[in-house]
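Sanity check. The docking grid for NAP depends on where the pocket ends up, so I'm generating a full predicted complex first rather than guessing from homology. Inputs follow.
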Amino acid sequence: MSKTIIITGTSSGVGLALGNYLYEKGYNVYGLSRSVPTNANFSTIPTDITHEKEVDDAIDQILAKNSKIDLLINNAGRGMVGPVENATKNEILNLFTLNIAAPTYLISKVLPIMRKVNKGKIFNISSIGSEIGLPFRGFYSGSKSALDMITESLRYELKNTDIEVCTINLGDIRTDIADHRIKSSISNVYIKDFEKVYTHMNNDVNNGLAPDIIAPFIEKLFTQEKKLKPHYYFGTAIQKLSRWVKLMIPQTWFEKIIAKYSGL
Ligand SMILES: NC(=O)c1ccc[n+]([C@@H]2O[C@H](COP(=O)([O-])OP(=O)(O)OC[C@H]3O[C@@H](n4cnc5c(N)ncnc54)[C@H](OP(=O)(O)O)[C@@H]3O)[C@@H](O)[C@H]2O)c1
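Predicted complex below; grid placement will be based on this.
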């Protein structure tokens, strides 16, 4: 029987590429996003994952046809840009609701199902930026850091089961993420610096890796017998190296490198 996979955020970008690839490989794929893409081969259940009732209904629909869920990929997420000083409580809560509370709710829904067969995997899509407080992306970096830490905690809590969880921390990927970011207002004192950084960050995404090359990497993690590590990193060599550089040099030096790399 083919394995059942739930992926959130499948109407575009990484989730869409992943859904189509895994479907072509013969998996039983359910995508959860608010809009239904026209170019998806897999089934989409239109769902706003920040609404618990909609998630409950989607899971019920999946369970009506499948007795188990083999893999949950918490992929849906948004970026947020702007100065820390200018972010509103609503913007921050919207971001953390989508990037943290929603994937956590999905985890709480699939764990009891996975526990019945004592098997399953959960991949939380994070960012290499979770380990670096990037300029004008403080809340995005913070939301992905929180996702990393929640994942680490959950690994201890699942240690007596065969249910495994990890994060997959991406570098820049060529998707429409820039168009979907929450953008705070920018007060005058920040405009010059913000514009420089904003141009850089958008160029980085536009020149990022193609989303479809992530899919085989993720399938390998799903099928491997070897226990999952807490975190996997997928990006260019320089993006992956940045994590090590941060650990090896004084942070004030590292800040200078990031400032230059960001266009400041
Ligand atoms: N692209 C990068 O450079 C990059 C780098 C590091 C990490 N990531 C992470 O990779 C993941 C995918 O991003 P992407 O680049 O593929 O961005 P994207 O093209 O903007 O895709 C985001 C997906 O999330 C879905 N989504 C947003 N709000 C939702 C909601 N309330 N309920 C259900 N689905 C929702 C969107 O679908 P609807 O709008 O139709 O709901 C869309 O399918 C994100 O977690 C992102 O943080 C991306």
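Relevant for the grid: Residues 8-15, 32-35, 47-50, 75-78, 98, 125, 127, 170, 172-173, 175-177, 180, 205, 208 surround NAP (CB under 6 Å).
Also worth noting: The chain has one domain: 4-236.
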